[in-house]
Write a structure and sequence with these properties.
Length: 159
C-alpha cells in the first residue's frame, strides 16, 4: 500500500510542477534557501530521534490499516520539498515545445508513478526480508549517522 501511495504522490508532485509551481519557485530563489535550512534542521531532528530510539519490536502485519499506510505515504512524499526540486530540474528536459503539453504530461505522470511504485515496492520487499536485522540499536545508529551526514552535506552546499 505504501508503494501505491508514493506512486500517487509522485504523480501529484509532477503535476504541481507541470502546472507552474516550478516557475513560481524559480522566481523566488530566497524561498529555496529557507527550505534548505528547514531541511537541515529536520534531518538533525530525525538523526537525534533515530540515535535515541530503542530497537523496534516486531509489529504484526495487520496492526496498521492499509488506508493509513497509503495516506501516510502520500503525506510523507508530498511534504518532501526535494521531490518538487528534482522534478523542477528534470521535467523540462522531457518537455518538447512543438508537441501538445497534455499528452506529454500524461506520459510523464504515468511513467513517474510506475517508476516510483517499482522502487518503493522493491524497498518494501527487501525490508520484509531483512526486518529482524533492521530493528536493532546498531541499525538505528547507522540511520542517525546518515541523517546527520546528509544534514551536514546540505548545510555545506553554497545555494
Amino acid at each position: 500500500m505504501a508503494a501505491s501511495g508514493f506512486a500517487i504522490a509522485t504523480a501529484l508532485n509532477q503535476g504541481i510542477v507541470l502546472a507552474g509551481l516550478g516557475l513560481l519557485l524559480s522566481s523566488h530563489m530566497d524561498i529555496l534557501i529557507y527550505l534548505k535550512w528547514a531541511g537541515v534542521a529536520y534531518m538533525l531532528v530525525l538523526a537525534y530521534k533515530a540515535w535515541r530510539a530503542a530497537p523496534s519490536s516486531h509489529q504484526q502485519a495487520g496492526s496498521i490499516s492499509r488506508a493509513r499506510i497509503f495516506f501516510t505515504a502520500i503525506l510523507v512524499s508530498l511534504s518532501n520539498p526535494k521531490v518538487i526540486l528534482v522534478n523542477m530540474m528534470l521535467l523540462p528536459v522531457y518537455i518538447s515545445a512543438d508537441k501538445p503539453l497534455a499528452a506529454q504530461a500524461v506520459t510523464i505522470l504515468c511513467t513517474g508513478a510506475a517508476i516510483s511504485f517499482s522502487v518503493y515496492a522493491s524497498y518494501a520487499f527487501f525490508a520484509s526480508k531483512f526486518i529482524t536485522r533492521l530493528k536493532s540499536k546498531a541499525a538505528n545508529n547507522v540511520v542517525a549517522s546518515i541523517y546527520a551526514s546528509a544534514a551536514g552535506a546540505l548545510a555545506l552546499v553554497n545555494r
